[in-house]
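Supplementary Methods S3. Complex input for the zinc ion-bound model.
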Amino acid sequence: MTTYTLMKKLISVKDLVVEGYRLEELPDGTMKLIIRVRPVKAKQCRCSICGRRIPKYDRSEHLRTWRALDFGGVLIELEGHAPRGTCKEHGVVTMDVPWAFPDSGFTKDFDRTVAWLARTVSKSAICEFMRISWRTVGRSIGRAVDELEPDHNCRLHDLVRIGIDETSYSKGHRYITTVVNHDTNTVVWVAQGHGRMVLDSFFQSLTEVERAKIEVVSGDGAKWISEAVKFWCRPDVLRCTDPFHVVSWATEALDKIRREAWQEANKEVKELKKEVKPKRGRPAADDVERKMYEEAKKAARSIKNSRYALGKAPENLTENQAAKLELIEAENRVLFRAYQLKERLRILLKLKDPEDALAELNRWLLSAAHSRIPEMVELGRKIRRHKEYILNFIRTGISNARVEANNNKISLLIHRAFGFKNFRNMVSLIMLVCSDLTIQLPNRPIKCDNPLQNACSNTFCV
Ligand SMILES: [Zn+2]
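Predicted complex, serialized as structure tokens:
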């Protein structure tokens, strides 16, 4: 095997000819291998958009370079001509090269590898490992996703059960609205902003037939979602409230009660502190006042640090958190009763049978109304207003856990992706992670089971 053939095999791109190579040492000691390449005759002079054969626009002899994947830590650069041509349809365009996407300074395998890493690896790790900036990561993801799914709108066909959600980012200054397909568990639409107008633009991008196919729309309790659904969807569409939003209302109410209880307990501790002068060490057996002070302090601290213990499901509590709850049960009945109400609500939302859920929900509403805890009474009123929507969710049988997991994934991603300056690249990352798109890594057996995906151009995959 000649060195040229070996290099061609290592670059692993079809329709490429190696014309030469040279090794350079960069000032910092890094080795760089520059490989001179050109497309095979049949692939020369083609439009990079439509692939048609086109005449040359200019005779520029200017050489371009493309970063390729490293060979054992050695930087690899492909070097070659990419003249411009005139396409009847697309005007003056850069001619296509088989190893890179149009207007990219990286090879296709490089872009795909970056996109594959971005699904799971942290931003700083990608930048260091691939020796690129975070901006480049965004662009690479954009190109790789565009190759897999040239038209994101293909996800909008045949929607039946959808979920609408908004998430804030940039410290709550910006919003993003996402639409999820519950049947495939994928994100199908993403837009900047929130509110009625943004949601209207989603429904406008569907045809009338597609809108008529929608049977279930879930989301939080927002009025703008209900209004838009009423306006755009057919009259018998089932509007649902996601149970995890309902639980989060209860958790918020509970947290308000906890904060008030802590302020109350803290006040008491301060009062007691005035009466005793705390000394170091254990209180003497006869020092009743100091003992009372120590106990009040312990109780106040347990309330202060109980946010996670109160919010968690009992089966997931750590030993320490369980002990805190026991202390709250003994010391603060109001807070504990509010906690019990939240737990009852969480469990009833997991019921599968709508009849059982209705009976249990009615019992819960009665308990909340008679709890004599203002926050819980208020929560009861809110849940009564959304009662039908909550029951609709149980009727449709959409899995609560799946919706919640998807939502957590989206928030995490947005948090990670908002470093992107370009919103389109951010959407690409969300679309990539929250979908069944498979990125083909170079030189691996083909694994794409998604019919929507284009075939991989890798030599070893075709
Ligand atoms: Zn063209």
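The radius of gyration is 30 Å. The CA atoms of residues 178 and 190 lie 5 Å apart.
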